[in-house]
Amino acid sequence: MQAIPQNPRSLRPWWALVGIVLLGLGLSFLVFDIPKWNVLWYVFGWYGYLLIIDAVIYLRQGRSFLTHRRRELLEMMFWSVPFWFLFEAYNFVIKNWYYVFALRSDWLQGIFAWTSFATVLPACFLHAELLKSMELFTDLRTRLLNIHRGLRQLFLYFGAACLVLPLVWPRYAFWMVWGATLGVPDVINYRNGAPSILGDLEEGRPGRLLRLLIGGMIAGLVWEGLNYWARCKWIYTVPGLESVKLFEMPIPGFLGFPVLAVEAFAFYSMLSHYLRGGRHWEIDDFKQVGKRLARSYLPMAILATGLSVWAYVGVMHITLQSRRPQLQQIAGITTREIASLHSAHIHSPEQLYDRTPPGKLASLGERTGIPVAKLTAFRRELSLVLHKGMGIPDARLLLAVGVEQVTDLLTWNADELYSAITHYAREYQLDPPRKSEVKVWLRAVELVGGTKR
User: Among 220, 210, 248, 228, which residue's Cα sits nearest to residue 124?
Assistant: First the structure.
């Protein structure tokens, strides 16, 4: 157990209030649909939530990442970005998720992505630390596991397979990507005497493993819940599991979050041993240092940043499927009509669609001078544009094949619609959506509109 100060509550956890404020701001941006700001809901909500978690940890054990590990937390956030971009790079091949409604500026979207990805490692560890502050599994002991050479080799081989097979057989081995940073790093940690899961099991102490698994599941549920309501978000297209989802995640996919937390620990422990002199948030005695490669820290940080930039460029060209739509992109809309909509407090396609159900179109037409027939046409197009973050280009392709509103999708099956869209994409020189995206559109409208005719 970590040493607790004499007066563990001598500092009031003011950052809990900051977290509550951030959560409230993010929620207000989303509920009131404030253009541009509503895209930031995920960052406001997630950071606010994590600040509250850290405050609870402090109240329970008198220390937390923000009070006693601030520098380490900043380093953790830095290395969190290349850690997650590794999985983004794998996704170029396995194609298990894609992003919709990104910001229109690549630079701003990059800041948004970096800020979001910086929380991956802290989120995994904060939840495990929260469970530890509750003394969950701290005294649990099991039979000592003999970590013999054969078992270590098996762990190494499995880790190597997780690194390679998702790239060789992406359709069948995609799930192995979530073990890519677990097997090899944990064996290295074990051999070096750094904190490791194998070392814990050899000593009959499974508590850390169990806390990481449970904490990873909690983090995953919150992650996906926040993402579901976000404007700019990710959508999963895992083969064979598109129709069994909680939020945007296939239900079996939630099993990946506990594994992610464990491999995040293995990655960070290895990094701490080699680049941080063994300094680790769970080690109080900093005399127990590992191989400090001070001269290597900066080159490694530069290399990691460069690889992250490369992966981000790939995400923007491969994984990103749509940008935030704008009023001026709606077919047939004029500058005067946009100004009239602004005077009616409508500044985005979402506001035009959400605030003007068919029964209110006549009223909006009187206030803006836009004919009801034209407003109806705008709304029909937007029903496509906003459907599962489809965006303007893909909506135009659907219009070209005769799909004029979302309910028209019920008359198609995935193969026929994908074939028709691909034909028009070649004609218009546009990138067609993937068939997996088409299935997402169809599945979503079936859930709302009933079975296909």
Answer: 220
